Amino acid sequence: MANIPPELVQSYIHCSNLLFPESSGKLFIGIADNGNHFLEHGIKEGTKLVFDQEKPFEKGQLSCFIDRANKLHLLTTQKRGYKHLGRLVATISAF
User: Fold this and answer.
1) Could you give the CA distance from residue 86 to residue 90 in angstroms, rounded to a whole number?
2) I need a labelling partner for 36 at 20 to 30 A (CA). Which of 26, 44, 45, 62 fits?
3) Which 3 state secondary structure label does DSSP give 51?
4) Mean pLDDT lowest for which of 27-31, 70-74, 91-95?
5) pTM here?
6) 95, pLDDT greater than 80
């Protein structure tokens, strides 16, 4: 499991385990951008994606990966050279 590079962290928040009871205490949130590739999962640009760093990669499940240029990717399969940061456990959309 790779660590999130400090330069990618914009802020920290406390999140009660009551909100995500099946998750570990190692959650992070990313914001979907650059296209609407996962509309079938309810994910569109601007959706907040909650990842659990303690959940291992499972083929077919959405996970966050980082490439060698420190760019984040939402994928269901692992590409060569990409490191797994965490598995998707929730999405947050505001209307």
Assistant:
1) 12
2) 26
3) strand
4) 91-95
5) 0.86
6) no
Give the Å distances, CA to CA, from 15 to 41, 65, 68: 23, 22, 29
Please name the residues in contact with 22: beta carbons below 8 A apart, sequence gap of 6 or more. 89
Q: Which amino acid is at 24?
A: S
Q: For residues 91 and 32, what is the distance between their CA atoms, to the nearest angstrom?
A: 10
Output the six-digit token pair for 67: 């490439």
Query: Please, is 71 exposed, middle or buried when counting C-beta atoms within 10 Å of its C-beta (0-12, 13-18, 19+)?
Result: exposed
Residue with tokens 């640009």: 45
pLDDT, one tens digit per residue, over 9-59 is 888 777 777 888 888 888 999 899 877 778 888 888 889 999 999 999 999
